[in-house]
Specification:
There is one protein chain. This protein is an alpha/beta fold. It has a single domain, classed as Vaccinia Virus protein VP39 (Rossmann fold, 3-Layer(aba) Sandwich). It is 33% helix and 17% strand. The chain has seven helices and seven strands, in the order αααβαβαββαβαββ. The protein has helices at residues 3-17, 28-41, 50-61, 79-85, 121-127, 162-172, 191-200; strands at 69-73, 93-97, 133-137, 152-157, 176-185, 209-210, 215-219. Strands 3-2-1-4-5-7-6 form a seven-stranded mixed β-sheet, with helices on both faces. Helix 2 packs across helix 3 (50-61) and helix 6 packs parallel to helix 7. The chain is globular, with a radius of gyration of 18 Å. The termini are far apart. The mean pLDDT is 94.
Length: 227
């Protein structure tokens, strides 16, 4: 019996009793995805933890046969956009950010400060050079003005603030094709994000799916008429 076989079940139960989940990612494609995450994390630009990074890849891969572009709002230094690009199957990735850090936080955004996570557009463009990325600088949704007629297969939100999440959902939800997936970071970790998700989907047919770590996922069920 190997050390893994002997101590693996014990370690998993110890983690569970202490509020953590330990998953095996050493098989086949899972191992390759985790290696991609580790490689990019070492570059210092990827903010997601291992579970979040791997789940982001898995959700993206589930939309490979769904029509539409990919979008990320809140790209910061570009780490998650680069991870997404490796599994985007050549689809255009629309990257949105103020590139001046977070907007002014509201009353539901305790712990955040204006300008946090600032990274210059030029720096991120250089890092993502050669990838199928289109950059949109400015406050969202004003920065998406040229994409009113676009449709999306996958959307990643990492915007931290209550109103920013609501603004993003209001734009992308009706433009997400059936079978498309939206993943939002900081769910159940940041109060403003959690409340925004709950408010927006309270009257929608889709139920937000809580994921391990700090993410929530929504799978679009049917088309939405854009008025």
């Amino acid at each position: 019996m190997t050390l893994k076989e002997r101590f693996g079940p014990f370690l998993k139960m110890w983690c569970a009793r202490n509020g953590m989940v330990l998953a095996n990612y050493s098989n086949g494609d899972r191992k390759a995805r985790l290696r991609d995450y580790v490689r990019l994390k070492a570059q210092g630009r990827l903010l997601q933890n291992p579970a979040d990074g791997c789940q982001l890849i898995n959700a993206l891969l589930a939309t490979k046969n769904v029509d539409g572009d990919i979008a990320e709002v809140g790209t910061a230094a570009g780490g998650s956009a680069r991870l997404i690009s490796q599994y985007s199957n050549g689809k255009t990735i629309h990257v949105f950010d103020t590139f001046e850090g977070l907007p002014k936080p509201g009353k539901m955004d305790a712990g955040f400060v204006e300008g946090q996570y600032r990274c210059s557009l030029e720096d991120v463009q250089e890092y993502l050079k050669g990838l199928p990325v289109e950059f949109h600088k400015g406050r969202f949704p004003e920065s998406a003005g040229s994409l009113q007629a676009s449709r999306f297969s996958f959307v990643h939100l990492d915007v931290d603030l209550y109103q920013s999440v609501l603004d993003c959902l209001g734009f992308f939800y009706p433009r997400l094709n059936p079978g498309g997936i939206l993943v939002c970071h900081d769910y159940l970790h940041v109060e403003g994000v959690t409340q925004a998700i709950a408010k927006f989907f309270a009257d929608k047919p889709e139920g937000p799916i809580e994921l391990i770590g700090h993410q929530v996922m929504v799978v679009k069920l049917s088309p939405t008429v854009i008025c």
